[in-house]
Amino acid sequence: MPVSENLLIRQLDLELVGGCNYKCKMCPQSEGRERDFLSSLPYELFCSIIEDACQYGLESVSLHGSGEPTLHPQIVDMVKFVKNKNLKCVSFTNGSLLNNELSRGLIEAGIDILRISAIGYDRQSYQKWMSRDLFQIVRENIRHFVNLNRALNGNTEVHLNHLITNVEQLEKEVNWYQENWVKFTQAKAEIWLMHNWSGQFEGPYERDKLVRRMERRSCGRPFSPLLEVRAGGLEKHKAAVVACCMVLGHDSQAVLGHLDTHTIAEVVSGDKFNRLRTAHAEKRFDDISYCANCDQLYDLPEALVWSNIPGRQYGQSKIVSGVDHRSYAEIG
Question: 57-77: per-residue pLDDT in tens?
């Protein structure tokens, strides 16, 4: 049976802007992203992609990819469009541009979850990893957002996303994050081990060295009800569908199709997507250049170090409840 006949897309990750105003040390953006993927997603194309996805059981739209979404001048209108479709709306930002006007706009538009990437447990470590000396400004922005949401009787949840920078001082970093971010901002948070961006990033420690079982298994993403869409694409195309969020830095190798010229069903049923699914089903990960050295192929529940977000568990989607990548991995 063709994939399109039983296609299910519960979560759509839509990148609004390919560029970023940060050059974080642990992100491939710091080395300069491929030029084809630095553009912005046009509003009309954004709307048409969501309309297309709605026929496949869409529940949630996440306005993120690898660029900074708050750089898009129409982000508030995009949130409104998603919410008018009765869908859950999430975004992932560094928080540096969350002034009062933008914060109010996002809250009043009805954004459900605003996730903040904040790596660094104090001013010095934040500047080292996030590339900018904005530790205090971002903390104040988040605290203001939380208080404004309360004052406006908004329903937005704020989730901080932290990464351990040194496993030798893991417990200390957890305590520092809790004190300097969670307590200060009154936001929810989660702390993770770093990942290697599908084999591109040599971090301060290697996740696969911490794994007890070295046997690789599918990450489950090629089979999951999630579609990852970049703002840019190859040869001046827009809305490239890529294999997963981890391929930043070599997006061009992982393009499965473009939604400015094809429908979702056509891309998901295409030869490139089928080859990816077959390789994962047969555990031929080395056949896929961007999968071969990816540490997401190793099962490591300890990657989720700490969280006070209700229901948060390793392996589950951070956005749509009931989506567990491990269960989909069993297909392979």
Answer: 999 999 998 899 999 999 999
258-272 tens-digit pLDDT:
999 999 999 999 999
The CB-side HSE value for 122 (13 A sphere, CA atoms) comes to 5
Q: How far apart are CA 145 and CA 157, in angstroms?
A: 10
Output the six-digit token pair for 128: 């080292």
Structure tokens at 230: 């970049």
DSSP assignment of 228-242, as one string? EE-S--GGG---EEE
Say which amino acid occupies 237: H
Yes or no: say if 60 and 319 are a contact pair by the CB < 8 Å rule: yes
What type of residue is 205? Y
Do strands 157-163 and 188-192 pair parallel, antiparallel, or not at all (unpaired)?
Answer: parallel
Q: With the C-alpha atoms ordered 200, 276, 7, 52, is the resulting torsion angle positive or negative?
A: positive
How far apart CA 197 and CA 182 sit, in angstroms, is: 26
pLDDT in tens, 229-252: 999 999 999 999 999 999 998 999
Contact 61, 15 (CB under 8 A): no
C-alpha–C-alpha distance, residues 7 and 55, integer Å: 9
Kindly report the pTM of this predicted structure: 0.94
Tens-place pLDDT, residues 161-220:
999 999 999 999 999 999 999 999 999 999 999 999 999 898 899 887 887 667 899 999
- CA dihedral of 119, 124, 130, 133, whole degrees rounded to 10: 130
Q: Is 293 helix (H, G, I), strand (E, B) or coil?
A: coil
The H or E element containing residue 162 is strand 157-163
* Residues contacting 56, CB < 8 A, separation 6+: 7, 8, 9, 264, 265
Residue 316 is classified by DSSP as B
Higher local confidence (pLDDT), 322 or 231? 231
Query: Where residue 324 falls among pLDDT bands split at 50, 70, 90?
Result: low
Residue 93: closest CA among 26, 160, 45? 160
